[in-house]
From TrEMBL:
The organism of origin for this protein: Terribacillus aidingensis
GO cellular component: ATP-binding cassette (ABC) transporter complex
Main location: membrane
Protein name listed in UniProt: Glycine betaine/proline transport system substrate-binding protein
SUPFAM superfamilies the record matches: Periplasmic binding protein-like II
GO terms of biological process kind: choline transport; glycine betaine transport
Length: 294
């Protein structure tokens, strides 16, 4: 998930991780648990994936005594990259779409108790009255739909150092057929459109792409990164016109319940989003139940 992921101060994470013993005997998973010091490397406190991880800590006996270490999306990705470079064990709060799945060989730990819920969708929400005020822009937003692979291309380019606006422009220029589906029936636009988004990698990608598409049609589009709750509130109160960043039903479920009568749900713009506990492929654990209580 971007996951799952409000802006917060990046906490310094210090882990003593030992590469040896990711294991090939019956004590392998226990050795892994000890090597990561029974800590899960998280992101911003309050993010949906963090709340789900807190639930997993309660649901699984194998996670008894474990701690969830908050940080930020960027700090988590840095810790992951450092661990993989040295082939050391690590366990993180992860989500897809995310560029790290394109860059590294990773796997979700199976979640037999369903603490992280089922696959999610990312939905487009607009303020009430937007369709009447800006029917052409609303039509584009309503027709916006892409895949995790599409989003991953943009996210990976950004992670490699390309400015998000430039990466979005590159993707739009390279995918004219898909963009034509979103803009079908809209020849030219005009007027101001404001999009709010939470600054997760996934939503940075989707919102910048939508800005390029709307601007190319003639709209004057502004995009504003804000906190999760403020994003929902701004659309509900009409301070922003729309967002393409609503993770449902779990990640933003509480916010959706709070604001669903004040926003218009245009439906999914992406399907197959997921959250959970993630480890490198070389780690000898496949399920949360393979871990060991402290």
């Amino acid at each position: 998930m971007r996951k799952w992921k409000t802006l917060g101060a990046a906490a310094g994470l210090a882990m003593t991780l030992v590469a040896a013993g990711c294991g090939n005997d019956d004590s392998a998973s226990g050795s892994f648990s000890e090597q990561v010091d029974y800590k899960i490397t998280g992101i911003e406190a309050g993010a949906g994936v963090m709340k789900a991880t807190e639930k997993a800590l309660e649901d699984y006996e194998t996670l008894e005594g474990w701690t969830l270490q908050p940080s930020s999306s960027g700090a988590m990705a840095t810790e992951l990259g450092n661990a993989i470079e040295d082939e050391e064990p690590i366990i993180i709060t992860g989500w897809t779409p995310h560029w790290m799945f394109s860059k590294y060989d990773l796997k979700y730990l199976e979640d037999p108790k369903g603490s992280f819920g089922e696959e999610e969708t990312i939905n487009t929400m607009t303020r009430q009255g937007f369709a009447d005020d800006m029917p052409d822009a609303n039509k584009v937003l309503d027709q916006f739909n892409w895949t995790t692979e599409d989003m991953g291309e943009v996210m990976l380019e950004v992670s490699n150092g390309t400015d998000p606006a430039e990466a979005a422009r590159n993707w739009v220029d390279n995918n004219p057929d898909k963009v034509a589906e979103w803009t079908d029936g809209v020849e030219k636009g005009s007027g101001d459109v404001s999009l709010a988004y939470v600054e997760w990698d996934s939503e940075v990608a989707s919102t910048n792409v939508m800005k390029v598409v709307l601007d190319d049609l003639g709209f004057n589009t502004t995009i504003t990164p804000i906190d999760n709750a403020v994003m929902w509130q701004s659309v509900a109160q009409g301070e922003a016109d729309a967002m393409v960043a609503a993770w449902l039903p779990t990640t933003h479920g509480d916010l959706y319940d709070q604001y669903k009568d004040q926003v218009v749900d245009l439906g999914p713009n992406l399907e197959g989003a997921k959250t959970g506990l993630v480890v490198p492929d070389y780690v000898d654990a496949d399920s949360i139940e393979d871990l060991e209580a402290k």
